[in-house]
């Protein structure tokens, strides 16, 4: 009987360590990389919870734990707190009212932080109008369904929480547009299927990249900007080559509700 005592005493400590290890990666991925730079407006509370000034999720523990899925098993239908949004002004001089946050990932897409170069883009960099988010998710879902075995689609920056300037002060060369919730950066699928942006045009799976461009055009995209060296095509006036787009396409949806 005495030999059992150390096991019984040690069990709570082992359990505590296990809980700490299980929670750490999830909380760190949204909290450490979720902090916006100085001057960035923190995300407003969503219908399913709230976010603090650091961008961390402050929902009840039970909700946060249910959302903490391993990267290998993302939610097949990501939960989105939709609300009526308004794109104000222009993509290069505007702002976003009541924006909707794109989830960090789903069964057919993942998000990428172009500054930290990590999976799961920060919360405040993935807001758009409700129409943009709905159409973006639909296109990606249909693309993966139409191409069995295709890798998940990567998504970069949309707009800030309330839109507005998204220039170099927010990292790298920044964005001229992406100001009113109508723009989204979508990375070209890689030939090696890795879930990260291609570094060179030779790494792009041109067949799948062209299929994505075509699907965005059919979905009513107003503009699809593509790289100068990836040789992608589309209707004149909609699909346009643009510098600094050799690793991603830039899709712009029409403003369905003008403020």
Walk me through what this model shows.
There is one protein chain. With 259 residues, this protein is α+β, with helices and mostly antiparallel strands. It has a domain at 74-252: Muramoyl-pentapeptide Carboxypeptidase, domain 2 (2-Layer Sandwich), CATH 3.30.1380.10. The protein is built from 4 helices and 12 strands. The chain has helices at residues 5-31, 61-67, 130-146, 206-218; strands at 86-90, 93-97, 100-101, 105-106, 109-113, 118-119, 127-128, 153-155, 183-187, 223-226, 239-241, 248-252. Strand 5 and strand 6 (118-119) form a beta hairpin. The longest helix has 27 residues, at 5-31. The radius of gyration is 20 Å and the shape is globular. Residues 1-71 have low confidence and may be disordered.
Assigned CATH architecture of the domain at 74-252: 2-Layer Sandwich
Low confidence ranges: 1-71
Strand proportion: 15-25%
Give helix and strand order, one letter per element, not per position: HHEEEEEEEHEEHEEE
Q: Over all CA atoms, what is the radius of gyration?
A: 20 Å
Secondary structure class reads alpha+beta
- Overall pLDDT level: 79
Q: Which percent range fits the helix content? A: 10-25%
Distance between the termini: 75 Å
Major beta sheet summary: 8 strands, mixed
Fill in the CATH topology of the domain at 74-252.
Answer: Muramoyl-pentapeptide Carboxypeptidase, domain 2
Please give the CATH class of the domain at 74-252. Answer: Alpha Beta
Number of helices: 4
Shape: globular
- The beta-strand count equals 12
């Amino acid at each position: 009987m005495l030999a059992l005592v150390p096991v019984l005493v040690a069990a709570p400590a082992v359990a505590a360590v296990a809980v700490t290890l299980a929670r750490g990666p999830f909380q760190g991925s949204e909290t450490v990389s979720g902090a916006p730079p100085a001057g960035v407006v923190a995300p407003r509370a969503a219908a399913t919870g709230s976010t603090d000034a650091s961008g961390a999720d402050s929902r009840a523990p039970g909700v946060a734990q249910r959302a903490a899925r391993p990267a290998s098993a993302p939610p097949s239908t990501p939960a989105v707190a939709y609300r009526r949004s308004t794109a104000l002004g222009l993509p290069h001089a505007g702002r976003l009212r009541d924006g909707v946050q794109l989830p960090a990932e789903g069964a057919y897409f993942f998000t990428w932080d172009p500054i930290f170069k990590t999976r799961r883009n920060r919360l405040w960099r993935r807001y758009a109008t409700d129409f943009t988010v709905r159409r973006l998710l639909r296109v990606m879902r249909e693309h993966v369904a139409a191409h069995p075995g295709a890798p998940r689609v990567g998504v970069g920056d949309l707009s800030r929480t309330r839109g507005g300037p998204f220039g170099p002060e927010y990292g790298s060369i920044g964005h001229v547009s992406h100001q009113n919730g109508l723009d989204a950066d979508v990375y070209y699928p890689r030939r090696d299927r890795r879930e990260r942006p291609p570094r060179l045009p030779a790494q792009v799976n041109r067949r799948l990249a062209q299929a994505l461009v075509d699907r965005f055009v059919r979905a009513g995209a107003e503009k699809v900007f593509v790289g100068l060296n990836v040789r992608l095509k589309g209707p004149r006036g909609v699909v346009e080559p643009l510098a600094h787009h050799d690793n991603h396409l830039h899709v712009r949806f029409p403003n369905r509700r003008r403020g």
